[in-house]
Amino acid sequence: MSSALVQVGDVIAASAALASAGLGDMIWGHASVRDAEGRGVWMKAAGYGFEEVDSDRVLLVSWSGEVLAGVGRRHLEYPIHTQLYLARPDVNAIVHTHAPAFAAFASLDQVLRPLSHDAVPFTDPPLPRLTAVTGSLISTPGLGDAVADALGASNGILLPSHGAVTVGADTAAAVMYSVLLERACRTQLTALAAGGPKVWSDEQETARKRDEVWNEAQLDAGFAYLVRQGASL
Ligand SMILES: [Zn+2]
């Protein structure tokens, strides 16, 4: 199979998984994979929801935002993807969504705590927030660079008044990190609403759980489950 076909398949699978996890926002939000030949990023075309992505709705977008392959319009926020790949050679897949829990949690300016398994990938380094730039669309390379700077070496970042971005070495990791981060934000919002969390895993236990609970095989298994669920939508 050609690398293009594999990467189109990865974008379709990521989109199906995000749909089944309930992370869609009508036609907004997107997942991408890095082009194996270094031409740019593969991502869904604008105007479709995650559950509507098929091989006719995936584009190859160049580093400067030109559509090199596929039919349709690119998303305005393509610089989230291009600029983060340029900044992070270890990253091969990126997810951006607008799930409401991200903006709700970001608005509280609280540190994300490992109250459950879900927050474990986001505690070392701590989950960053994009601050003092914009709560609007990340529609220019300069804004994409600002997200990359704030992300640093983390697996994800909150975009206050907007959503979140997660990154991974592969599609499974990037998608699962979005799913886990959204659940972690919801869990802490629930605890905060009930008086605030008093107990969570210490650093040692969190480090152990990072390897035990969210190793590559576990991320792959969770992702495969979500793809199967997405295929039956
Ligand atoms: Zn957005």
Summarize the structure in words.
It is a single chain. The longest helix has 23 residues, at 171-193. This protein is 41% helix and 14% strand. The protein has a single domain (3-230), classed as L-fuculose-1-phosphate Aldolase, CATH 3.40.225. It has helices spanning 3-20, 78-87, 100-107, 141-151, 171-193, 203-212, 216-231, and strands at 30-34, 40-44, 58-62, 67-69, 93-97, 156-159, 163-168. The protein has a 7-stranded antiparallel sheet with strand order 4-3-2-1-5-7-6, with helices on both faces. The mean pLDDT is 95. It has 233 residues and is α+β, with helices and mostly antiparallel strands. Helix 1 runs parallel beside helix 5, helix 1 (3-20) packs across helix 7 (216-231) and helix 5 (171-193) crosses helix 7 (216-231). A hairpin with a 5-residue loop joins strand 1 (30-34) and strand 2. The two termini are 26 Å apart. Bound molecules: zinc ion (ZN). Residues 77, 96, 98, 137, 162-163 line the site of zinc ion.
Helix content: 40-55%
Widest sheet, order of strands: 4-3-2-1-5-7-6
What's the CATH H-level superfamily name? Class II aldolase/adducin N-terminal domain
Number of strands: 7
Which ligands does the model contain, each kind named once?
zinc ion
Structural class: alpha+beta
Q: Span from first to last CA?
A: 26 Å
Strand content: 5-15%
Oligomer: single chain
What coarse outline follows from CA principal-axis ratios?
globular
Which architecture name does CATH use? 3-Layer(aba) Sandwich
Largest sheet: 7 strands, antiparallel
CATH class type: Alpha Beta
